[in-house]
Input
Amino acid sequence: MGLDNANRIILILSGKGGVGKSSITTQLALTLSLQGHSVGVLDVDLTGPSIPRFFGVESAKVTQAPGGWLPVPVHDSQPYPTQSKETSGSSDSIRENASIGPLSCMSLGFILPSRSDAVIWRGPKKTAMVRQFLSSVQWPALDYLLIDTPPGTSDEHISLLETLLKDTADRPSQLAGAVVVTTPQAIAISDVKKELNFCKKTGLKVLGVVENMAGFVCPNCSTCSNVFSKGGGEVMALDFGVPFLGSVPVDPAFVMLIEEGVRPSYPEGTSVMGRELDTKPVTEEAHGNEESLVQKYNSCSLYPIFDGMAKQLVMQVGEGNR
Output
């Protein structure tokens, strides 16, 4: 089975489109990798496969192997960036001789001839594709497999969960649970509540709620303004009795990192959760390929937030034994 090498499987869910599930999945994957874990990302959002673009591997193609596909590598295991050790501001977060864990991903985007091609499939074909992804991808040994899902509770979700429950029946702890993503607005909260009810009815454990787009980080002064209000996700988590993992603001520097490959840079004196951020000016050299995405993400203001979230998840689900 394709999932045999994944010690823990975590689904990223939301009942609402456009709340940033793929962004949350990407940053959780990068953060877990920075913590030294081996990570895989499976994109089952068949009509909007954006994971290849987030990781900067759009031009890659999957490789056929006996029995299935090999996932696309994003980066291999590598030494932790020296600069990060000097500027982290948190001595206990960096281990001596620490290394970044390997990261790979799989998406329908690697199979389509063009990123602009529309996927016009009926439910049965989507269901078959989801099951093929779960059974035919030959993952390397993974500590965590993150599955980025489409919005709602559609055919893909039912097929995904049925297959996962069947394939992990002899090892229930392998299917660790779900991270549910929302934005602060009341209209988004009302839709995401349906996803929490879906998890409750299907017996899927909710590992926590993430409130995305909870504020906007000004690129000039680093002040965070609550453009879309804040706190709705935390209240919803409290109402459903599930953990609240945290609030994530919109950071234009992260957008530039994904779109242009520019290492994040902030005004002097900017710190997040006790961690002083990189204030070096962005030069033309920052557009080069000398550094990997994960090394550049280490300078992002959102990384300390996701570092805390990832540690909560690791404490909840552990890594298990291969």
Residues 84-97 have pLDDT under 50 and may be disordered.
